[in-house]
Amino acid sequence: MPHCLAKVIEFPSFPFEENGYRFLFEAHQYGNLSQSLILVHFGDCEFFLRKRFRKDRGDFIVKCEKISRNIPTGVIKGALRIIANLNSSHLITHNLLNDSPKQNLLSPFLKQIQDFVDFARPFELEIGFGSGRHLLNRAQKYPEMQFVGIEIHTPSIEQVLRQIELRGLENLWIINFDARVFMELLPSSLCEAIYLHFPVPWGKKPHRRVWSKRFIDESMRILRRGGMLELRSDDEDYFLYALNTALQAQHLSCKINKNLQKEIVSKYEDRWLKQQKDIYDLQVYALNEDQRPKERYDFGFPSKLSLSTFDTIQRKIVGPSWFLHIDSFYTSDDLSVLMLSFGDFGQPQSKFLLISGDGKARYLGGDPLPTQAAYFAHQELLKIIAQGGEH
């Protein structure tokens, strides 16, 4: 994680601008002045840096707030370099050496979640593409088809984005996101195939697995009739769990293979084959098409909000299928920032809510993902803020 350490961290008067970066404000945590958030704009990117005083070491550390980790690494490093240079006389260390040029570019093939809300073209999807061998080969072999790859490992994403440009591919989009939430947002009956190759088995934490009954249901919804969901795994227990889960669903057929020779061998598969491990394939085919229209949710705010207290505001609400947790508050002059987690218990979302002095409110980086659980949590948040403004 890019960061810098210094004995003292100081800023010019906010807002200020340098090298295309705009540093808008610093908001300190309510009740804990050792932590603060610095809002940064660069091009279309908007993110928070977190400054924290480490009492045990007597220094300050500044790094990207974890909710903003989908921002390109080079963009984050650029902001941190400016802070390091401003505090060079107090600097202890950093890991902000020069990036490759690609890290500093916003690739047109790296998409945001909003690009998929009204997605309307047939596509193939690969979840957790790793080195990208399979995904890149498919996109190169079938230029008329749109391909989407989803991954949370930033170095893998940057590697594949470089390969997209080197190979001149125009039909491959990449997104850095949680696949379980992403699936709920995709349109019905439009996907040709879904690939899940060598996922982490999570033997001791099965709740973290991508493959679940809900995942199967969503896969069958977004697949066209005859579309395929393919799992490849070297873990026999995971394979049996996946097969049993699929068999509990409705309107599908299954095909099983063992040690099937594939045209493209992934990095992990290559490793397992050298170790003479068995490779298990499970192909699940959708037998129906889901034509239900996608639900639309409004995440808007009243024209003017007022939040006058933090001490008595309700911090945790748990509904039958959703939750809302206000983790912490930050203030800067007359501006408030709420750090939130909410939505589905198994697939929570995290967001910052900004409330300006004139009462205008917005979610940093755009609205939450339009899931039903997130919408219920949003409605509860409106009630809590309204109540907080009455004190």
Molecular shape:
globular
The H/E string reads EEEEEEHEEEHEHEHEHEHEHEEEEEEH
Backbone CA Rg: 23 Å
The CATH superfamily name of the largest domain is: Vaccinia Virus protein VP39
Figure out the total of helices.
8
CATH class of the largest domain: Alpha Beta
Distance between the termini: 41 Å
Structure classification? alpha+beta
Q: Major β-sheet, in short?
A: 12 strands, antiparallel
**Low-pLDDT segments:** 101-105
Q: Give the CATH topology of the largest domain.
A: Rossmann fold
Roughly how much helix do the residues carry, as a percent range?
10-25%
Number of strands: 20
- Strand % is 25-35%
Counted up, domains total 3
- Overall pLDDT metric: 90
- CATH architecture verdict of the largest domain: 3-Layer(aba) Sandwich
Describe the fold and architecture.
By secondary structure, this protein is α+β, with helices and mostly antiparallel strands. The protein has 3 domains: 3-102; 107-286, 3-Layer(aba) Sandwich (Rossmann fold); 316-388, no CATH class. It is 23% helix and 33% strand. It is built from 8 helices and 20 strands. It has helices at 73-86, 133-141, 154-167, 179-185, 213-222, 236-247, 267-274, 372-388; strands at residues 3-6, 16-18, 21-29, 32-42, 45-54, 59-64, 91-94, 110-111, 123-127, 146-151, 172-176, 191-197, 223-233, 252-258, 280-286, 316-318, 323-332, 335-343, 348-355, 361-363. The strands form 2 sheets. Strands 1, 2, 3, 4, 5, 6, 7, 16, 17, 18, 19 and 20 form a 12-stranded antiparallel β-sheet that branches. Strands 8-11-10-9-12-13-15-14 form an 8-stranded mixed β-sheet, with helices on both faces. The longest helix has 17 residues, at 372-388. The two termini are 41 Å apart. Residues 101-105 have low confidence and may be disordered.
